[in-house]
User: What shape does this take?
Amino acid sequence: LYIFLAVILCMVVCLVILKTGNTPEPVTMNVSLYKVVPDYDSFKKTISDRWKEKHPEVELNFENWDCYSGEVPEGLDVFVFDTISLDSFAERGFLLALSEKDIQDYNDLIPSFVEGCRVNGTLCVMNNGTYVDMLMGYTGAVNVAVNVQERNVDVSTLKIANPNFIFYDSEQTLDVIRNDKVLSQLDAVKGDHIMMVTQKQVSRQGLTALDTLEKMIYFMHPQLALRKATADEAAQAAVKETQAQAAAAATEPAAQETQAPQAATEAATNAAAAAEPKSEAEKYDIKLDDLSLKKEDENANVKAMQQRLFDLGYITESDNVTGYYGDVSAKAVESFQKNSKLEETGAADNKTLTALFMDNAPKAE
Assistant: This one.
């Protein structure tokens, strides 16, 4: 009996050793997921569930890395970008299919973006709430309000940071800024370095975003806008010169026949025209017509007016050429009105604007 039990025990031990020796080591794969997605938790769960279905023998270990910050974690095996799972999101009902007519300003979307967001011919578009921070990053600026929680801004943080520029999304927000004892004393507010950028402008991921990005850059770096304006003027001048040469070449024979009789008349006409003051509105790309501007306005016409006031010396710092009609602009307009013997209101009515853009407009004293 003892011998029999000993044999059985030896067989069990051998089987345990054999079983242990054949058990494969557990396999783990280190994975990082792209975090700028509509719902990161759903993204992660989808990856995990699908992987367990296909490869239950391999465990996924999720690393905390977003592909932007720091070095690649040591031992990272796979990085998963969000668009890889676009089909999965659509098939599992996480995204609603859209038609072109369902999208406001469909032509605003970049064509390559649209084609890249089609699943089986159906358009599926996802958005995220971090696009404004991405835009700010592209301008080279640092967002001092990165600690914003639940749309509440830490006033003490803004006071310490004392930002050079402030972007706000509505007139109501601007009223809060101007009426707050702390925010109203920030250098950006006192220097009128504040500009409206609406929520729509920073959430639309198409041509609107590109226009917004340009607007923000020119607001913070007006010298770049001046360079662009100069380049555009040079290009327009070259086109006009080419057109003028072509027109002159086409009419040269006829012109030679009538040149002598017309010479005296043209000389007199040119002399009279030279004596008359001319508008320089076209140079600033502004159409006066019945245009009037006032405080709180914000648009390209205000910026053109500010640039003209800067050129004439009424605005002394180029940083104040922002496109927003604030206190600095109102004081500059009032000074110009005084020198032009116009009613000193600080509001740029059409009469003031017409005088401002004449080539004989008085310079600041």
Notes: The chain is about 50% helix and 5% strand. Residues 222-275 form the longest helix (54 residues).
